[in-house]
Amino acid sequence: MKSRLRFAPSPTGYVHIGGLRTALYNYLYAKQTDGTYLIRIEDTDQTRLVEGAIEGMIEEMLWSGVTHDEGPFIDAVSGQITEIGDFGPYIQSNRLDLYKKHALELIEKEHAYYCFCTKERIETVREAQKNAGLTPKYDGHCKHLSSHEIEEKLQRGEDHVIRLKLPENRIITFDDLIKGSISVNTNDLDDQVLMKTDGFPTYHLAVVVDDHFMNISHVVRGDEWLISTPKHVYTYEAFGWEAPQYVHLPVILSHTKKKLSKREGDVAVKDFRRRGYLPEALINYIALVGWSPEDGQEIMTMDELIEKFSFERVSKSSGVFDLDKLNWMNNQYIRNCDLDRLTHLCKPYFVESGFVEPDQFEAKFDWLKRIVEILRERLDKLEDIGSYKSFFSMKEVVLEDDEAKEIIEMAHVSTLLQTLIGKIEASADLNAESLKLILKEIQKETGHKGKNLFMPVRVGITGQVHGPDIAIVVEILGKALTVERLKYCLDNLC
Ligand code: GLU
Questions:
Q1: Does residue 262 have an active-site annotation?
Q2: What are the tens digits of pLDDT across the range 323-341?
Q3: Other Cβ atoms within 10 Å of 177 Cβ, number
């Protein structure tokens, strides 16, 4: 059988960075084995629905490059959700009849039962169990209702759920590719609700029915689901179906070794995207949180990830999300990115920071491209480019720190800048080459060289002691602005 793997997010409104890694590992294995990777939307919890969430999440996944073969997509023309694949619908709320049918089938086979207990009763039972020091679980009150009683209650339209009927004292065993063999006694499990009062299935029924009918070969998901898996395995058995191979991934922790949380920083893929992380960098980085290839290679394309990935090398302990490492990796990708593409990707930050009006972007593209070219090695993420706005547009030089002040106040600087202004004004054009020639001339004529020459020039033009190649900066600034800054400096700061 060909491998078929799925990413099954609930539409909470954004793809969590941990979800992205889960999706990626599913995708990598599917592609490596020439199989299929699909997305299924698990929206059975109607209380958690968020408007537009499905569309947003599909969009984020496609942006990331973890592209699905089957599942919901966004139609380019209508903007509506459409589905591709022979195993749909891929959104659980469109599969309600199937769950209902299968819940009833389990009742018929006596592997499930109606439960008419009220919320209040269940709460009281739980409280009593807790007070007695027991793990709270359903007490089986409705497990042995007679068919007559059930019929009557149904006739009366009493609210009810359908529960899985677990056998007593049975060991359920399954094998997980990362966790190994796991055995649990049914006495330690609850009779899981499969159908809720609102007629919607719980996740636990829907996931089994869907993974079965979508022919899923490997269920790869976060290990917060491990505790539910024995119930799923039993549900497969109750239906007479074969369970898939399970792979539970250790969680991703923050640098403080806590669960990643929205409060601690960015956990939403869309936030990383907004701040200018390249999708290939984010993917490369997230692949390495809890997995590494045998050869220790760090920078990998998607094709290389597909080739090298294996569940066997996924770590058994939690991975730590290290923002510094992600920034380093993003910077590596920024350095090597095609310059035209990079400049286009920088557009929102140029516009946001006022570098350029949105409708002027194309007209100023070549100029912006030069800025990207000299700054790219300094950017951890593309949004950082916005902080260079004044560097390229200020008319009045602002001295960055005391060191810059000391340099500009050296005794020889005022004559030096005067000479420089004169030569720039006299030159036909100002570019990197002509500035270099001018500086050589000044060196010859005045005897100032090295730091005594270059530092005052840099500070006089940028206000900063360090920064990108000054010859290229000057070329980007142009003659008029360079002279204006030097004159300001001369009149006000020297
Ligand atoms: N809907 C579940 C989630 O959002 C997916 C669990 C699974 O993959 O089985 O985490």
A1: yes
A2: 999 999 999 999 999 999 9
A3: 17
